[in-house]
Write a structure and sequence with these properties.
Elements (H helix, E strand, L loop, with lengths): L4 E4 L4 E5 L18 H24 L7 H28 L6 H14 L3 H25 L1 H9 L4 E5 L2 E5 L9 E4 L9 E3 L3 E5 L1 H4 L5 E4 L3 E2 L4 E2 L4 E5 L7 H12 L5 H26 L10 H15 L2 H20 L2 E3 L2 H6 L5 E4 L6 E12 L4 H12 L5 H7 L10 E7 L3 E6 L2 E6 L1 H6 L14 E7 L2 E12 L3 H10 L4 E5 L4 H11 L3 E3 L4 H12 L6 E5 L5 H6 L2 E5 L5 H6 L2 E3 L6 H35 L5 H20 L9
Parallel strand pairs: 13-20, 13-22, 20-21, 22-23, 23-24
Antiparallel strand pairs: 1-2, 3-4, 3-5, 5-11, 6-9, 6-11, 7-8, 7-10, 12-24, 14-19, 15-16, 16-17, 17-18, 18-19
InterPro entries: ATPase_P-typ_cyto_dom_N, ATPase_P-typ_P_site, ATPase_P-typ_TM_dom_sf, ATPase_P-typ_transduc_dom_A_sf, ATPase_P-type_domA, Cation_Transport_ATPase_IB, HAD-like_sf, HAD_sf
GO cellular component, one term: plasma membrane
Protein name: P-type Zn(2+) transporter
Amino acid sequence: MKKKKVKLRDLGSKERQGKHGHGSGHNHGGPEGVSKFKTYLPAIFSFAMLIIGIAVDYFDAFPFFKGWIRIIWYTLAYLPVGFPVIKEGWNSIKHGDFFTEFFLMSIATLGAFAIGEYPEGVAVMLFYAVGELFQNAAVNRAKGNIKALLDARPDEALVLRNGNFVTVNPQTVEIGERIQVRVGEKIPLDGILLSEKASLNTAAITGESRPDTINKGEKVFAGSINLDGVIDVETSKEFKDSSITRILDMVQNATARKSKTELFIRRFARIYTPIVVFLAIGLTFLPYFFLNDYVFRDWLYRALIFLVVSCPCALVISIPLGYFGGLGAASRNGILFKGASFLEAITKVNTVVMDKTGTVTKGVFKIKEIKAVKFEEVELMKYLMAMEEQSTHPIAKAILEYKAEGTDMKATDVTEVAGKGLKGTVNGNTVLVGNKALMASNNIDVPPETDDIVNSIVMLAIDEKFVGYVTIADELKEDAHQAIKQIRDAGISKIIMLSGDKDSITQHVSKKLNIDWAKGGLLPEDKLSEVEELKKQSDTKVAFMGDGINDAPVLAVSDVGIAMGGLGSDVAIETADVIIQTDQPSKMARAIKIGRSTRKIVWQNIGLAFGVKAFVLILGAGGLATMWEAVFADVGVALLAILNAVRLQRMKWNP
């Protein structure tokens, strides 16, 4: 069905976009600045006119309320809610869409007028309009999360230029500029903290309400609120690439990626609606050939009921709204799904494959042990630090954090030995820093005890003699153990770890976390091969959790790719289907639970809509249902389905 944009002034909607009734989206809110009263005014007017008319009919208080006077009264009651629908039905026909809900409601209510059932004609259209207003309220509630993100985007930045801090639009700030953020203000762009410490509310980014303490040199994200003291930040990204802008784009674009269930209902509605229209025509005229006491008016009335009941809006409203609610609930929990299709796909996952560094570990290396031979520990570290100052490796950064007095040694003639370490000169001595392979290639004997060390080891040799080593290890994230337990509790049958780190470390970590199977020392293509082998098993649905550039190929090929959004690389985040903003692997289990809750509510709505409609259609065809039952089967069921979908926004998914 083609997309169109139609003004619906009288239903309080300045603009409605999408394939209403057969499409996904509705936009029934009034334009900005229009009061709620004005939005509901057409429905209030019609309701008042309808109640007065019914009362006058019932009590027969005014003898003149007959004939044309009565017709004009109910017509005036009908027009505020009926005219916009008839107009949009006509526009749909002009665009080639005959069997829309606008067409069905227009024919049914005009048909009711044609046979003199004026109150029922007005009532059907009025309740339809009220249903639209309720739906609008539900959609606006579901969109509250996106609005909160929009509100979180700062609209000004205090930037240092020509020696003074000046207020500018954040979009004009360049990478590397210094900005200042006062207490209570939002950080306008992603950057590096220049101040010693900051206390930030990062709820808009991570979904976590508790304050986050950031130290000098660590990353800060746009949209975070500064809670304590003036802070300075050096920008690291442009405004268009900032975290808050990226999150907003992801959540907004997610609604365009439909789930398989949603797409099926769309296709079903396009087939189902015309079938019902032709059945209604048959219900009107076919009895003439089989019944002796055929009364055209009676059978037309049954057909009109049939049309009202057949309207598929309960399905095509509540299903997208259910998925939208699931997406919103996930983003409130610091989990961003890039589409409803992934919200559905994660419910089918039975195997979780995860990277190690940055996923279940912090990706921050720390010195675990220093072993000096013939040297004092401090002297050993001075030589080691002098060499590692020439390296950008994460292990070098960990070594340089060692505190030693008078670390004024300088290394010269430093060269890198590919895959092994560094070679250089310190204080006139030839120094080798690296792994066991570097020592072996230079014929330097190392103690046998080093063979049993699991952690990363940096060995040091001076003038061709082994003088000691330092062990470096990554730390597990605080929730790593909890994450594995919760993933298992969520029904995942197999958990696997694939890492580029050496196999001994990978096996050690996997054993600590009680992971089913692990393999280390893998290149990106090796990880890809392992996951592709898993996917060849017909009953296996794989979710992969990773954070680095090297994980991007596996994230892309997995059934569901999950990236760590805080520490993760931009490439991984762009490739993944789901982003965990808090870097907590335990959020994986919550993502699965949210997906399952969403699927459950969607299928509840499908069952409710089909069940009630089928029942009332049968009653209507047999002459046992009136327009009032038809209104319930259409608008009433739609409202119940909407209320059921809204439940997602109040649910809690505790561990």
